[in-house]
Amino acid sequence: MVCGFHVYAMEIKAEDNGTSPDQQRKLANKKLGFKLLWIVAGSIAFAIALVPLYNVLCTLTGLNGKTKTTASEISNTKVDESRWITVQFTSNVMPGLGWNFHPKQSSIKLHPGQVETVLFEAKNITSQVVAGQAVPSVSPGVASSYFKKIECFCFMRQELQPGETKIMPLRFFVSPELPSDVSEMTLSYAFFSADKP
After folding, report:
1. Where are the domains of the chain?
2. Could you give the CA distance from residue 58 to residue 121 in angstroms, rounded to a whole number?
3. CA separation for the pair 26, 78 (Å, rounded)
4. What confidence tier does 59 reach under pLDDT thresholds 50, 70, 90?
5. What is the number of other CB atoms lying within 10 angstroms of the CB of residue 152?
6. Cα-Cα-Cα-Cα dihedral of 68, 71, 77, 83, to 10°?
7. Is the pTM value of this prediction over 0.70?
């Protein structure tokens, strides 16, 4: 009964506008189609923007262990000799990058504020020029914003000739403001294939 009344009301309205109910239905369907297209386009734009926004958020806040991709300054940093921090180093090479990559030492013990340099070694095991980009992360996540890189191979794309081995330095310090309950952290590097610019 309600459906019949709705169709009847549409017919009366259609007669008032000079359009048939079929034309009105087609017009309503067309409007709905445009609305759905806008929703789909908006969803795609949001999905594309989500990854860069997430990376910026993680870098700024230290969420998910992401660290800054720019050099930190050492200005006015005092060494806290009252405690020790152990920093462990791990590395991964992602599929598609024909490299061997590892830290020259597995861990280091230092005071907060103390500047240290550690070395990583990368070797191109292919017969062609291969480029890669290192992405660092620190765990626990709360420690990531206190890990300060002064010089790092991860700031730029690295390129190795066929069979070339390269020593890559990391110069860093751990901020004395690191919470006192954190005495160990792990810096992990994942090297991804990087196309030529």
Report:
1. 2-61, 65-193
2. 27
3. 74
4. low
5. 22
6. 50
7. no
